[in-house]
Amino acid sequence: MRVLAAMSGGVDSAVAAARAVDAGHEVVGVHLALSATPGTLRTGSRGCCSKEDAGDARRAADVLGIPFYVWDFADRFKEDVIDDFVAAYAAGETPNPCLRCNEKIKFSALADRAAALGFDAVVTGHYAQLSDGVLRRAVDADKDQSYVLAVLTADQLSRAMFPVGDTPKPRIREEAAERGLAVANKPDSHDICFIPSGDTRAFLGASIGVRPGAIVDSDGRKLADHEGVHGFTIGQRKGLGLPGPAADGRPRYVTEIDPDSGTVHVGPAEDLHVWTVEADRAVWTSGEVPSGPFDCVVQVRAHGGIAPAVVEAVDGGLVARLREPLTGVARGQAVVAYLLDPQGDRVIGSGTISGTGRERASGAGELVADSAR
Length: 373
Known about the structure:
Blueprint: E1 2-6, H1 11-22, E2 26-33, E3 42-43, E4 46-47, H2 51-64, E5 68-72, H3 74-90, H4 97-116, E6 121-123, E7 128-131, E8 134-137, H5 146-149, H6 154-158, E9 160-161, H7 169-178, H8 200-208, E10 213-216, E11 222-226, E12 253-258, E13 263-267, E14 274-284, E15 294-299, E16 306-314, E17 317-326, E18 334-339, E19 346-357
Parallel strand pairs: 1-2, 1-6, 2-5, 6-9, 10-13
Antiparallel strand pairs: 3-4, 7-8, 10-11, 12-13, 14-17, 14-19, 15-16, 15-18, 16-17, 18-19
Helix pairs in contact: 1-2, 1-7, 3-4
């Protein structure tokens, strides 16, 4: 096959491209320029898409002996990822920009251009497994990225390749060194790629500005003022600007955010427990909407937030009725449904969280027919 290897300048994408070459594919490397000012987007292990990264990707392509290009996606990235991120926080949500980048950039804009140029698939260094259109968790549980890939449609998955998902990360680094790739020991990128400082609140403040509001407790008593709901997320405990813990000495957590009134609600840890998760924009990786409720495991954060549940497709979205409560479930994040499978947990579908319920739904603890298989 003729495949396009998305090369970020890191070790994972370099090895993924190398494995595609080994498999006999005709491989062309491409680095995505996602910033209008690329020199500003890397500080050590923070950030990405800098001139340094483009250079590292080019050198890796030279070692592999494949053609290499840099494609400018800065405008599309700003519109579909950065602007979406800012708007979501302004609306009191907690978005996942990596998920949106996969959906809108790497497997939409990039894949569409690749197809138009006659490429059969896009190769990336994501840690996930894909076979016969079935998306599964990676072998390396600590590096698994199936959660942020669960927004991909059946068509997008049919044109994707994840060559490193069957290998633990330490072995990938060893392989890179054996191949003579200079990125073998390059630090992984952390945090949000377009906020190299790591200070999300400052970034959002500069983008959104001051929008004063109140912080209130579970009884509605005002505790403090704040400069904008974008500075908070569900489950947050630190940096609330409160004079101290509650009267009973227990810490307070953000339990609800009302963007319309600008009110941030705080309360004890038990107020974070939710039993129902509602989501819109459902994507079913098989391309078929499940015909009824099915038993599965759901994940509501990129790292953690996992519980058994009964999931059902509803009006273009989905509802997950949990068997065990989850905490820190925020609107704007994704809820991903997995079926436990001996070959690796299988991604069934995902949705963008739009609401939660604190009451345990009747029947949530009962087994139901697995209609998603």
